[in-house]
Amino acid sequence: MLKGRFEGPSGLPVQVLLFGLAVPLLLRLKLERLALWLEPPSSPPPHGSRAEAEALVRRIDVWLRAGRPLVRPGCLTRGLTRYRFLRRAGFPVSLRFGIGELAEREDHLEGHCWLVLDGEPLAERRDPRPLYTETWRIPADGREPV
Fold first, then answer.
1. Adjacent-strand bridge partners of 136
2. Rounded to whole angstroms, what are the CA distances from 26 to 90, 126, 131?
3. Mean pLDDT of 28-54
């Protein structure tokens, strides 16, 4: 599935860990610049099934957890890292950001980010769309943030 620089026993896991470590610094960029930086330098051909995307997400999550406590937990680290590496693998995912007031924590707004593949959330325990009002997104081509 992943070719070139991702081949080998440590290539992709090391890149995921390094990227996860860099997320707090990346979040200091203006959102439009961040979106352009996350996008692959050239458009990879569309690739793989939803099951393959989910398998890559699971591997990315394992590598991020292995980097704790240096790699921060949370949806921002997961979302940005997943988006970057799924896009580089050719999956047409978009990254959505939203805010909502969750029933279990009244009078408390909470933010969340999640990936969308083929119009459906990817690798979420529950569908975030009814829980969060979308405020910003990086579309599947990463070119024109909304």
1. 97
2. 22, 27, 26
3. 85
